[in-house]
């Protein structure tokens, strides 16, 4: 599991329990209305890959509504039923407890679990919190937990893309050539993005960036950066005063110019800390959900631009 506590609890909520649950029901039906393959993804990055690989042969819905924070999504009985009816379920075990419960309860025939495809790392393996002697117990508590945010390293995405293409081909053998071609084209885009990141972050005055929560460990590991999170892997975790003081020390010692926050979680702590330190606050999006016309690649490019400014890259 990626963390302990409330995320490990059963979260199959009553139908009208919470707004996020109701919004999820409005996100669409996982049963395709035509002859397309009905794919149900647990949250945005996985949904995006399924859409790109499946093309016109699939109908993809998400259990996490647009604009919702995915970590703590709850599922109604109707949504659990959608998991059972889907031709293919794409999820990341350990990331969303309610989805794990639904998959275990319904045992769908065709599943892609990203955790089975990706070699997930712990925060310690990523190099997050290399200032361990300066931080509070929060870093040590989560140091052994697996980081789920693999999609923020574009070089890791092709393995997942290929797994989705293979399982779609098992569901729909007639579309195998289409899925393979779409996967190849998508992987080329991820490889190009990876190269842009390598080039764009190669020469920077600083290698340390501060984020509201530790979602960017894979990105930091790939591009030789150092992530400092105000909170841990859980974006809702409240940082202790000791943790905030430690982050302030890192900012001053390493000349950090920007504290990053994200769109789907309250920016209050990050903005307040930045204001207290007299530095900038800016968005660095973990691409866990999208709104409007944005997609994975447009957000990733925005993130690269933000990092280049914050790290004074040339």
UniProtKB/TrEMBL annotation:
Gene3D superfamilies: Nitrogenase molybdenum iron protein domain (3.40.50.1980). SUPFAM superfamilies: Helical backbone' metal receptor. InterPro entries: AdhesinB, Bact_metal-bind_prot9, Lipoprotein_PsaA-like, TAT_signal, ZnuA-like. Keywords: Signal, Transport. It holds the Pfam family ZnuA. GO terms for molecular function: metal ion binding. Residues 1-31 form the signal peptide. GO terms for biological process: cell adhesion; metal ion transport. The keyword Transport applies. Belongs to the bacterial solute-binding protein 9 family. PANTHER family: HIGH-AFFINITY ZINC UPTAKE SYSTEM PROTEIN ZNUA, HIGH-AFFINITY ZINC UPTAKE SYSTEM PROTEIN ZNUA-RELATED. This is Zinc ABC transporter substrate-binding protein. It comes from Cellulomonas chitinilytica.
């Amino acid at each position: 599991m990626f963390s302990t506590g409330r995320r490990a609890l059963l979260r199959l909520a009553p139908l009208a329990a919470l707004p996020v649950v109701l919004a999820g029901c409005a996100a669409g039906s996982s049963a395709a209305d035509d002859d397309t393959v009905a794919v149900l993804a647990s949250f945005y990055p996985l949904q995006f890959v399924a859409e790109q690989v499946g093309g016109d042969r699939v109908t993809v819905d998400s259990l996490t509504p647009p604009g919702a924070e995915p970590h703590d999504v709850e599922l109604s009985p109707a949504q659990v039923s959608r998991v059972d009816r889907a031709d293919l379920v794409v999820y990341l075990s350990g990331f969303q407890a309610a989805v794990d419960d639904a998959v275990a309860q319904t045992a769908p025939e065709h599943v892609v679990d990203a955790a089975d495809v990706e070699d997930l790392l712990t925060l310690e393996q990523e190099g997050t919190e290399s200032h361990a002697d300066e931080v509070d117990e929060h870093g040590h508590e989560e140091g052994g937990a697996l980081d789920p945010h693999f999609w923020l390293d574009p070089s890791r995405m092709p393995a997942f893309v290929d797994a989705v293409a293979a399982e779609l081909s098992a569901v729909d053998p007639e579309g195998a050539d289409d899925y393979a071609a779409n996967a190849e084209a998508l992987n080329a885009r991820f490889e190009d993005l990876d190269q842009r990141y390598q080039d764009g972050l190669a020469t920077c005055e600083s290698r340390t960036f501060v984020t509201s929560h530790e979602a960017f460990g894979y990105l930091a590991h790939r591009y030789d950066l150092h992530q400092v999170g105000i909170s841990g892997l859980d974006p809702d975790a409240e940082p202790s005063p000791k943790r905030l003081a430690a982050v302030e020390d890192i900012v001053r010692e390493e000349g950090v110019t920007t504290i990053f926050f994200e769109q789907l979680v309250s920016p209050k702590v990050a903005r307040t800390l930045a204001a207290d330190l007299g530095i900038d606050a800016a968005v660095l999006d973990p691409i866990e959900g999208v709104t409007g016309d944005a997609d994975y690649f447009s957000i990733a490019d925005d993130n690269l631009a933000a990092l280049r400014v914050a790290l004074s890259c040339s």
